[in-house]
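Cross-check.
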Amino acid sequence: MSRVKVGIVGSRFQADCIAAAVKAAPDEAEVVAVASPTKGNADAFAKRHGIPRAYSDYHELLRDKEIEMISITAPNRLHAPITIDAARAGKHVVCEKPLCMTLEEADAMIDACAKAGVLLLYAEELFFAPKYVKAKQMADEGAFGRVHLVKQGEKHSGPHSDWFWDVDQSGGGAVMDLGCHGIAFCWWFLGKQKVKSVYSQMSTQVHGKRTRGDDEAITIIEFANGAIGMVESSWNRPGGMDDSIEVFGDKGQTYADMLMGNALPTYSEVGFGYAVEKAATTKGWTYPVFEEHWN
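Predicted model, tokenized:
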């Protein structure tokens, strides 16, 4: 099977993540080009990751006939125009979060890719985080009974890039940056139910001199089946990233911290498939692990 030839648009933190992820799957894909308008960035990025071609304009990258798919890690305001240009060039698109800045832009991106017959993929990684996948597996096995509340929180001290503080470039604040993860997670965890209502309490508590956007928010989502999603988003947590979930059902509950430990403290009145080697039961409090063979 031939490897997918990938071009990365952007050269900062997320672009590094994409390049490293592709290297981790060498039989599936290969990064063959990078584009960045910042002087010297594309060349430095290409040298750092062993990428053969570097461009200062993403239009040049789109003219590269070897490239089959692009990964967009550029500022939010550029997601829509780059996607539409890529579709016209016949390239498949993986776009980092948030997909774009407005619903109108989203419709235009979807329409352009559909007309061109190329894929438009949204890079939401929480659907694949092993610990969170384990929590959903237990929920799908009935461990918690009817799940009625799912909570996700992501908190840290602020964006990697200065442009994200500027709402004209980012489209928003902490909800646009972090809440998009939690909203998507709750929707996925609850079986992709239709959304009945959404309420978000947004405020600027700490960074008023840096941004007109929100730096603290709590978002509540009501789904068609009556379940509730609650998403906490903050740029006001010093000391590093916090990313965690809580799941509550009428028969049990579980907690998962994505960045600490390898077990999910879990309570189930009915039990589920498997917790950990030698565990005699999965009823009551247990500590199921994820990717056990790696531990």
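The radius of gyration is 21 Å. Helices lie at 13-23, 41-49, 58-62, 79-88, 103-116, 130-140, 167-170, 174-189. Passed to J.P. for a second look.
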